[in-house]
Structures are given as structure tokens and as C-alpha cells.
Amino acid sequence: MAQLFPEWSNRVPRLLLVGLILKITFIVFLFWYFGSPEYLEVGYAPKQPIDYSHRLHAGQLGMDCRYCHGGVEVSAEAGIPTAQTCMNCHSQIKTDSEKLTTLFAAWSGGEPIEWVKVHQLPDYVYFNHSAHVSVGVGCESCHGRVDRMEVVMQAEPLSMGWCLDCHTNPEPHLRPAELVTTMGWIAPDNQFQLASEIIAKKNIAPPIYCNGCHR
Amino acid sequence: MSQSTTYVPEPALVKGNHTFGSITALIADISEKPAPTWWYIAFGAANLLLGLLLVLIGYLVYEGTGIWGITNPVGWGWAIINFVWWVGIGHAGTLISAILFLFRQGWRTAINRFAEAMTIFAVICALVFPGIHIGRIWVAYWMFPIPNSMQMWPNFNSPLLWDVFAVSTYFTVSLLFWFVGLVPDFATLRDRVKSKLAAKIYGVLALGWTGGNRQWQNYEKSYMILAGLATPLVLSVHTIVSFDFAVSIIPGWHTTIFPPYFVAGAIFSGFAMVMTLMLIARKLYGLKDIMTDDHVEKMNLIILVTGNMVGFAYIMEFFIAWYSGVTYEKAAFINRAMGPYAWAYWTMFLCNVISPQFFWSKKMRRNIKVSFILSIVVNIGMWFERFVITVTSLAQDFLPSSWGYYSPTWVDIGTYIGTFGLFFTFFLLFLRFMPMVAIAEIKMVMPQADPHHYDEKHG
Asked: Has residue B6 been placed in a domain?
């Protein structure tokens, strides 16, 4: 009887088996790497209705974060400033700037400014700004060097794994609460001791159980 | 010295004075000749039901689990009942193929291929439910330890996770076992079929089998090793399925009797399912010489034994509920037998404990009609067993103010019926295209394989 298959077909089952294992590993890798927020979301910098520069206001002028984001210490939301907050200064400064037309329109009774939200968490995550700021997690720990950003950009992945990295090991990210808005804060040499004191004093126990954040 | 033992000859395992050639022809012809008309009708019906299943799964994915009858306090409804039921049915396959093989029970060869196929398809039907019951089907990968940016990892303390591994291991080993046994028979079909394409397909599946001495040696060794690996699985899978219930603290679930009780029930329902399918297949395909009345009797004995084990467990549960002195446990069992689900409890009891008692009589064991009807009754009873366990304990637990009554919706019922479509689509394809009896193995137990009556002299 003639042979049904050529000789090379003897190798096919082995190649298929090895190929299958490699393929599965490769697919998992593709999702793990290219599907992660670290790859997909970091660097997200949408165009805003006004060319507002954090680099100018927070960096060069040295305004405190809390001047505009006033809710950060007392509420879950840091808050987006109203047109009035801007007008506290801009009623006198740059009153003829074309860039501020949208602001003036909003202030004089038009539509509110539709700022585009950059740092989006899923609706099932109950993140609270005040809980983090009041124990000494700096703004820049999550939002990056905003004082250097012309347009606000997402600097960190904000993935659950990234949250847990700090929740399981908070020491490197804690600082005295009065320094939370400082940009470019450098950890002192005795950071671990300092952080341990803060943890003991404020009784910090970051939740790593599900309903800590998914209530 | 007088002989204290006498040789009782076993009845021949293959009747009808077949030759090796006629056995091959009898089984291989099923795959080679055109399918009978009833096959097309049955396949069409199975496909319709499969379509129903797929539509309802689509509806579930679109709408969420709210379309099922589950709500507070019964959060586990037909999905888990059907899952346990199908996995239980899947137990006969490994028992027949592995344990009976290790015990050198020659009669298994007539039904092992068949039962293993049934096992694999039943486990596929079972796996549908854990796959879809999560509602958010796109996160089904959370059941597996796959690295991800959420640092989510399966909870290794949870019996539900053990279940994922137990059932998938069981499925893999059963599939391998089935396939290894099929290799020589695929080669037989490869060499017999006329069509070039069919020869190629069977040839791929036969893995280049030539029937040489070296190949047979390796085959026997690997078959033995797989049987050894599969044997603990017969016990482990349903043990772990029972842990899904027993590890929780709900009264009526939190009992140590669950593992053996579930395993016995699984073998019970699995054998009943093999019986149902076997009696249909041997009639439609004229295989009475291979699947003889002796086989039916032996299987009925196993159904009787396991049925009594299950009955013992039912009664023992009540004894322990009383003996434990735990109020909640007692209340749970009184509610089972006399509460709102008493109708389900007594249906279960009648089907699983009373009905197999007919098999004490040899006449009943060998009666095909009785065997057929009881095999179906047993599987109805085993479905109700899972219903009783799941629903009664959840509907009435510690807090009377939160008690409720569970009813399924039409989607629950349709999904369950749909899994029969999935099962029979696979099974009919198996009957049509694969050798449904292990051709090579059955020849080893034929009277013709023992031309010198070697067994009788040295018995």
C-alpha cells in the first residue's frame, strides 16, 4: 500500500504541540503587555477647551494645587475649579487674551467650560482623595510632575496592580502631610523611619481586601 | 486432596460466534456506510436544541444573569445544578475505562469507548455553566492564573477554584485516555475506508499506527499509565465538586459525608446514562452480540450498589442532623423533607432509592425495558438531588426573615434543554464517524481469542 503521508509529517505533531504552548504564551504576553493600562493609558493628554498651562501656573508662578483643586483635603473629589476661581485673577490679568474667550463667555453666564477628564477610574472604584492626601501621599505620586506639564497628561497607569503596589508597601510614598503639594520632593535618607512614624501616628493600614475600594 | 474451589465459567463476553473479521466489519461499517435516516432526523433535532442553547447564551451575555431565576436568598440556581449533574454523568467514563481496566474486568471493553465519549461530552456540557454563570463572560479568564495588570490572582483558598482545576484535569486526562484507545481503531478505519479524504483524516488521527509489536507494547504501557492516572480522578473530581458546598457553612451543606456521597451519586447517574444510551445504540445499530444482556445485568448491579450508597447517605444525613444537636442543621433537614420543597425531596428519594431496588431481582436486572426506564428515572432523581441540595439549603438558612422560594425562568429551562442539544450533537457525530466500540480491545476478550481454552484449564 502506498504511503498516505510524506516522511516530514512525522514531525508535525511535535511541532504542533510546541507551537501550541508557544502560541498560548505569546497570546497571554500580548494581552499582558499591550492590553495593560501602563501601555494604553499612560501619556493620555487630551486637548482641553482652553490651552491652560499647568507648567505656567503651578510651575513658574508656583501656585498651590489646592488653590484650584480645593476639595482635595476634605472630599473624595479634588474638584475642577469654577470659572470664578479663574476670574479671581483673570478679571485683572490678561483681560484681553484671545485664549481666554471661552472663560469669559462662561463667566458672563454662558455654558460652563467642559474640561476633559484625564484621570479616569472605573465607576466601581471608590477612590477618595482626602484619605490619601491627609495621610501624606503627595499629588505627584499619582499625577506626576504636573508643574512641568504644558497639557495635563496621565503619568501613571492607575491600574489596580499599580494601586496595590503602594497599598502593600506604602513606605516609599509617604511624606509629611504639609508637603503633599510639593513638586519634586526628594525622599530624605531616613525615609523609612519617617514613613514608619507617619504610619504609626496616623494608624495607616491601606486596605488590600476587595471592598476597601469596591464597595 | 479434594478441591475446595470449582471453576465457574463466565458467560462469553461476545455472543453470536463472531470471527475477528466480522467484529471489525460490524463496527467499522457504521462509520463507512451512509448514515441511516433516523440519524439525520436526530442530528437535526440535536442541532435545533444546540441553536437554542447558543441563542440563550447570547441573551445571557447581552442581558446578564437577571434573566435566570436566581435572586436573594437563592443565588445558585439551575446553573450549578446542571453543572453538577453533567459532571456527575461524566463519571461513568473514567470508572469504566480506568478502574474496571485495572481490575481486569473484561466486560468493560464493550462499553468503554462509548462511556468515555459520553464522559467527554458530558463534561463539555458541564463546563458551559461555570463559563457562562459569571454573567460578565469577558472576565472568564479570572478563573485561571494568568498575569494581569490588576494583580488579580485566583483565590487558592476557594473550592470553586479547586473545581476549575479538578474538572479541567479530568477533562484532559479523559480526552487523552479516549484518544489513546482510539488510535488502533482509527488505523483500522484508515485502512478500510474508500475515500482518499477520509483515509487522510483517519490517518492523521491514527498517528501513523502500523500495528507493529513495538507499537503495541508502547500502547499497552501508556494505556496502563493513563488508567493509573485517571483512577484517583474518579474520586477527586466529584469530591471537589462536593467541596463547593461542603466547605461553606450553610446548614445542609457543611457535612463531611458529602465527598463519598457525591462520588457514589456521580457513578450512579453516570452508569444510568451509559445504560440509556447503550440500550438505544445497541438496538439501532444491531450490536446485541457485543453489548449483551450480561453487560446490562452487570451495569444494573453497579446501579443497585451505588443507589444504595446514595440512599444510605440520605438517611445518614438525617441521623447526623439529629445527632449533632445543631438546631440549624436539624431545621434544614426537617425543611427538606417537609418544607416547601418536600415534593422535590420525595421525587429524589423515590427515583434514587426506591427505584433501583427492583434490581435485587435477576429477572429485572436482565429485563431491557425495565433497565431502560429505570436508567432514565435514576437520572431524573439525580437531577432532583442536586436541586434539593442547592435550593433547599439556600432558600431557608439561618435567618427566617430572609427565607424565600426559588422558581426557574423559561431561560433556565431552555438553557438546560439546550445542553442536551450540545451533548447529542457531539454524541451523534461520534456514533457516525468514530468506532463506537473498541474494535481492537473487544477482540482480546472474545472466546475466539482463547482457542485452547486456556482460562478454563487453569481457572
From this structure: no
Which grid cell sits at B434? Answer: 468514530
The pLDDT, as a whole number, for residue B3 is 65
Looking at residue B103, what is its pLDDT?
A: 87
What residues of chain A score a pLDDT lower than 70? 1
Cα(A64)–Cα(A181) distance, integer angstroms:
7
Give the per-residue pLDDT at B96. 81
Which residue positions in chain B have pLDDT lower than 50?
A: 459
The string of pLDDT tens digits covering residues B122-160 is: 999 999 998 888 878 888 888 888 888 888 888 889 898
Distance of residue B206 Cα from the nearest chain A Cα, in angstroms: 12
The number of distinct structural domains making up chain B is 1
Inter-CA distances, A132 with A2, A23, A214, B19, B240, Å: 77, 42, 16, 83, 43
Domain locations in chain A as residue ranges: 13-39, 43-80+115-213
Confidence check on the interface: ipTM exceeds 0.90, yes or no: no
User: Mutating which of A1, A3, A4 best tests the B interface, going by the most B Cβ atoms within 10 A?
Assistant: A4
Residue type, position A120, single letter: Q
Q: Do you find a cis peptide bond into B73, omega within 30 degrees of 0?
A: yes
Is B149–A36 a contact, with Cβ atoms under 8 angstroms apart? yes
CB neighbour class for B116 (10 Å; exposed up to 12, middle 13-18, buried from 19) = buried
- Measured distance between the N- and C-terminal CA atoms of chain B, rounded to whole angstroms: 17
In a domain, residue B8? The reply is no
- Return the residue of B nearest to A157 by Cα: B149
Closest-approach residue (CA) in chain B for A168: B151
Give the domain range for residue B374. 28-457
Say if A10 is an interface residue toward chain B (CB within 8 Å): yes
Predicted TM-score (pTM) of this structure: 0.87
Q: What is the pLDDT of residue B459?
A: 44
Say whether A28 and B200 touch across the interface (CB within 8 A). Answer: no
CATH number reported for the structural domain that contains residue B99 in this entry: 1.20.1630.10
B19 falls within a domain? no
* Contact between A157 and B203 using a beta-carbon 8 Å cutoff: no
